[in-house]
């Protein structure tokens, strides 16, 4: 590596052309003397082999004092986030305790116990129950929106929108200014929706706008937009003029100047805020990409937050200071840094100690965080908190301290930068330039590869796939895990990682043979291996895990380390189990359905064969046809009958029970047998249908049916007939066909008592009568009258002569029928001799 120093202090930002970059941590030992932090972090850190690095290093192991420092900082940061989240929810719990004190007439201690008891009985957390109690007791707009959003929350890890809105209200109203309200809205209510910045605008009488408070923007950006003159069209100005919510899905769609347009780079929503019909300001929310789809429920949440903005602006004064003073770089330095095409950040010392502690005060629009964090999350954070590995010997912190102390610019064309991403060490080479500008230090770098993008992809891939990486040094027996593995094993981040030779002890007894085969292939045969097993955690939870690993050889081809990954496949396993059970249940259901359909067909064939030869009853020839449905699940209750009665008359009938399946078939059997028994009384067709209607209504289970019933007197060649909601018979005489005039008659089984009309027709030798069910003529694309007309035309074209003319007639109707409903069909043909 090479570094250069100018002979005298200066203020310079110099960098050659090249790729873009990152923040990190290693400086050549030939540079200025290391400070006290270098001595503190003197422990060994094995980062990567010598030479350039194109991404995550193979066999990267973090050890020594610096590794412990980085791990401690990461753990403390997580604990701080948890403490902040707990503190935010505490206000909601305290308000809920107050509600119980008032309702139960008890003290605060007893009310807190009751809240805990009610939460246990309801199977929820105290925070969720507290949010519900507060929303129920309140009558404001935030509570109304919260109740609707709580019902739509499905993520078990999410405390609920109602909790977030109530936390927002509590923090905003307890703050001292609009800036506190903006921060509360962003952290509690808007960041879960993907937003990265929020601005609260105050409307002035002269039609200008003032930035009353903001969060997520840099200090320099907020200062530039402190005042918007009249006539400047912005998203906020449009929302005020139109008195409605304004939404831009992309920056190109907006085509108007907006705060943070180049920082957030995404869409935004501006919601007018006011009290009593008077607009006092605007709430503007920014996203890094497109905003979420604005449903009615989401719009109500934005309006609730706008109402909170209006309440804040009622007490806002333009002359009042906006929170505590925030230090930042001079405007000239900020403009200079923002004009650079390479990532650059400005550091400021925050104490008079030596060496001082540095805080990140500004980052230009080209800034890209190595760990994939948004810029707004880093500005204002101490350098060592954001990048612990900068403190390593010869790292970036030492260069910053030297430049701040001496004023001499520092440049290194190939500094090795390092950062921890989810516990995995990533390194890259970069050109780094550090220079002092007054009391501030500017750090500019350009990476030699696309490591930031790779780091973000790695982080999100691990999170989405629930994948945890590991590496085990077989010589030192040191094991490195990332944070995901500790979560999979149910261990705290401070626990010792579990070595591969102990893996079988944590597996289910039935899976230990598979784990042994995996280890034998990996360690003895030295080949990549994978297996799946059930992990038994110390907390009693069993997870289904897939592990993939490969051996790592040194220069002498000896096995030196093992690296690999664990993946939680529990959801996939249980999904496969559920699918297998569903398939078994579906197969059983299909088998049962097939058996039912088979029984239905056997029942129908036993009572009504699909076809039967002509039957001679005195001077009447009778032929029948039955065509079942093509699909088994459509097997229905169509039926027919023809028999000679003791009185010498001939009974002919056709019917259709509503529905399909075994119920329709059994109903058909009941009606057919009942009509046979009733016909022996000698009653006429109308009376027979009246009695059959009573049987259908009272003695069957919700069965309805249509039927046509006829009694033929051979002596007089007279056919008396009646119908119950059925299609009329067709008469063919002398080559001309027509439908018999319809008579009144309601469906069977609809009411308990019904009367039916009866008609009669005197037949001649050679006349034919056809009775049928609707499966013969119904079409989806035409009405009933057209279908009947087609049937009449087909009857006229049917064969009229020959010994088997009647059979041929019925076959002709079945063959050329245009019906397309795939329903059962019954035909009964009568011919007078």
From TrEMBL:
Keywords: Hydrolase
SMART domains: ANTAR, PP2C_SIG
Chain ranges of the ANTAR domain: 73-134
Region named Disordered: 1-63
SUPFAM superfamilies referenced in this protein's UniProt entry, alphabetically: GAF domain-like, PP2C-like, PYP-like sensor domain (PAS domain)
Low complexity biased stretches: 24-36
Residue intervals of the PAC domain: 529-581
Signal peptide location: none
InterPro entries: ANTAR, Bact_Sigma-Reg, GAF-like_dom_sf, PAS, PAS-assoc_C, PAS-like_dom_sf, PAS_fold_3, PPM-type-like_dom_sf
The keyword Hydrolase is annotated on this UniProt entry: yes
Protein name: SpoIIE family protein phosphatase
Organism: Kitasatospora phosalacinea
């Amino acid at each position: 590596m090479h570094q250069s120093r100018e002979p005298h202090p200066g203020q310079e930002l110099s960098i050659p052309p090249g790729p873009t970059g990152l923040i990190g941590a290693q400086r050549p030992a030939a540079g200025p003397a290391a400070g006290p932090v270098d001595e503190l972090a003197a422990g060994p850190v094995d980062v990567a082999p010598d030479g350039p690095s194109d991404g995550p290093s193979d066999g990267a192991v973090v050890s020594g004092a610096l590794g412990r420092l980085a791990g401690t900082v990461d753990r403390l940061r997580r604990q701080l986030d948890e403490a902040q989240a707990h503190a935010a929810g505490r206000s909601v719990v305290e308000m809920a305790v107050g509600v119980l004190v008032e309702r139960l007439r008890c003290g605060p201690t007893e009310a807190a116990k009751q809240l805990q008891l009610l939460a246990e009985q309801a199977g929820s957390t105290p925070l969720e129950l507290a949010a519900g109690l507060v929303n129920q007791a309140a009558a404001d707009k935030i509570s109304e929106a919260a109740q609707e959003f709580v019902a739509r929350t499905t993520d078990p890890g999410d405390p609920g929108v109602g909790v977030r809105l109530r936390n927002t209200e509590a923090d905003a109203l307890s703050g001292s200014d609009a800036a506190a309200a903006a921060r509360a809205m962003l952290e509690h209510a808007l960041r879960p929706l993907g937003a990265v910045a929020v601005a609260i605008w105050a409307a002035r009488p002269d039609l200008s706008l003032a930035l009353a408070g903001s969060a997520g923007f840099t200090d320099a950006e907020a200062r530039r937009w402190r005042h918007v003159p009249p006539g400047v069209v912005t998203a906020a100005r449009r929302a005020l003029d139109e008195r409605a919510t304004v939404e831009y899905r992309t920056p190109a769609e907006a085509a108007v100047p907006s705060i943070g347009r180049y920082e957030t780079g995404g869409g935004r929503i501006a919601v007018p805020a006011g009290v009593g019909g008077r607009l006092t300001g605007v709430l503007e929310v920014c996203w890094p990409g497109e905003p979420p789809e604005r449903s009615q429920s989401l719009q109500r949440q934005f309006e609730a937050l706008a109402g909170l903005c209006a309440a804040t602006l009622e007490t806002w004064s333009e002359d009042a200071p906006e929170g505590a003073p925030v230090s930042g770089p001079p405007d000239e330095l900020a403009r200079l840094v923002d004009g650079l095409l390479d990532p650059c950040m400005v550091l400021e010392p925050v104490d008079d100690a030596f060496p001082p502690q540095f805080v990140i005060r500004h980052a230009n629009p080209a800034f890209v965080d190595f760990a994939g964090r948004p810029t707004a999350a880093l500005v204002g954070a101490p350098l060592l908190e954001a990048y612990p590995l900068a403190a390593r010997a010869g790292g970036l912190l030492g260069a910053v301290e030297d430049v701040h102390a001496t004023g001499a610019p520092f440049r290194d064309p190939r500094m090795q930068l390092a950062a921890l991403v989810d516990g995995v060490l990533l390194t890259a080479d970069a050109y780094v330039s550090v220079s002092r500008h007054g009391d501030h230090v500017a750090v500019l770098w350009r990476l030699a590869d696309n490591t930031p993008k790779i780091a973000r992809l790695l982080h999100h891939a691990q999170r989405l796939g629930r994948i945890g990486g590991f590496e085990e040094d077989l010589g030192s027996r040191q094991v490195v895990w990332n944070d995901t593995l500790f979560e999979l094993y149910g261990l705290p981040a401070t626990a010792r990682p579990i070595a591969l030779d102990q893996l079988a002890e944590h597996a289910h007894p039935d899976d230990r043979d598979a784990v042994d085969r995996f280890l034998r292939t990996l360690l003895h045969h030295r080949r990549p291996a994978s297996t799946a097993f059930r992990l038994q955690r110390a907390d009693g939870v069993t997870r289904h895990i897939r592990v993939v690993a490969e051996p790592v050889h040194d220069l002498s081809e000896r096995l030196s380390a093992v690296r690999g990954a664990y993946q939680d496949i529990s959801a996939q396993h249980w999904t496969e189990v559920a699918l297998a059970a569903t398939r078994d249940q579906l197969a059983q259901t299909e088998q049962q359905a097939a058996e039912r359909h088979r029984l239905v067909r056997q029942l129908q064939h036993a009572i009504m064969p699909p076809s039967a030869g002509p039957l001679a009853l005195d001077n009447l020839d009778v032929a029948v046809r039955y065509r079942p449905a093509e699909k088994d699940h459509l097997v229905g209750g169509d039926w027919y009958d023809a028999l000679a009665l003791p009185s010498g008359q001939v009974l002919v009938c056709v019917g259709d029970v509503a529905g399909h399946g075994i119920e329709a078939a059994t109903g058909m059997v009941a009606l057919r047998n009942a009509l046979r028994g009733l016909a022996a009384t000698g009653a006429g067709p109308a009376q027979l249908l009246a009695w059959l209607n009573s049987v259908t209504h009272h003695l069957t289970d919700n069965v309805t049916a249509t039927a046509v019933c006829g009694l033929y007197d051979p002596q007089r060649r007279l056919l008396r007939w009646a119908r119950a909601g059925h299609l009329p018979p067709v008469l063919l005489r002398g080559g001309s066909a027509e439908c018999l005039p319809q008579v009144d008659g309601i469906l069977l089984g609809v009411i308990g008592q019904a009367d039916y009309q009866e008609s009669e027709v005197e037949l001649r030798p050679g006349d034919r009568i056809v009775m049928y069910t609707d499966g013969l003529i119904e079409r989806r694309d035409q009405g009933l009258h057209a279908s009947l007309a087609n049937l009449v035309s087909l009857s006229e074209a049917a064969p009229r002569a020959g010994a088997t003319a009647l059979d041929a007639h019925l076959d002709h109707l079945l063959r050329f029928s245009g019906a397309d409903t795939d329903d059962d069909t019954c035909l009964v043909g009568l011919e007078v001799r």
